[in-house]
Amino acid sequence: MHADDRLAAITTRIAHAAKLARRRASDVTLIAVSKTHGAEAIVPLLEAGQRHFGENRVQEAAAKWPALREQFPDVTLHLIGQLQSNKAADAVALADVIHAVDRPSLVGALGRAMDAQDRRLPCFVQVNIGEEPQKGGCAIDDLPALLAEARQADLPVAGLMCIPPVGVDAAPYFALLAKLAREEGLTGLSMGMSDDFETAVMIGATHVRIGSALFGARTQPEAAA
Ligand SMILES: *Cc1c(COP(=O)(O)O)cnc(C)c1O
């Protein structure tokens, strides 16, 4: 299957899941996760009209996207991976949306970078929704305090993001993230990947992050997320 056929198939599946949940498909943003893939794989999706893309490493994104953006200036670039505080300035300069804000030091670094560049990017706060020690994301109990810090630092908080535990039903974790967002008065929900995006859409995802189902399996190793 060609990339544009895969894109059409995924778009149809998102629309179907949205319809089942009596949601509008246009309320779900499909982020094509292009990490590890080069311009030759990305351009066909751009030509098919896809405009939201996700990368998990600042350096890789900086190497690929400035050139692609010259051709397609209306792209929205989402940084979805763990972010080191010392890369915050580069991230703010390069990206349009940041999905993995998960600790006070990063909130501070992003706030300072946004002030310095006079550029405010919507941010998602990542929650370690399965309480897994090896995973990124703030602890559920720490979420209210982190959100308060983000507001203090003037970060535009768009919503919450999660990566549920592997190998188990993701639905309870998506439902928990949706509940936490409701409690905090947040509307954005960045959740759902290749294997579970329809479930995520039915539970309220506003942003699904889809890599392998669009691009095929990644052959290069990826950085831990
Ligand atoms: C790689 C990645 C995705 C996409 O994963 P697929 O299973 O290939 O769809 C989504 N979110 C994050 C944070 C990622 O690192």
TrEMBL record:
Alphabetical list of InterPro entries matching this protein: Ala_racemase_N, PLP-binding_barrel, PyrdxlP_homeostasis
PTM-bearing positions, type N6-(pyridoxal phosphate)lysine: 35
Domain of life: Bacteria
Domain (Alanine racemase N-terminal): residue spans on this chain: 13-218
SUPFAM superfamilies: PLP-binding barrel
Entries under Gene3D superfamilies matching the protein: Alanine racemase
Keywords of this entry: Pyridoxal phosphate
NCBIfam families: YggS family pyridoxal phosphate-dependent enzyme
Entry function: Pyridoxal 5'-phosphate (PLP)-binding protein, which is involved in PLP homeostasis.
Family: Belongs to the pyridoxal phosphate-binding protein YggS/PROSC family.
The protein's name in its UniProt record: Pyridoxal phosphate homeostasis protein
Source organism (scientific name): Sphingomonas olei
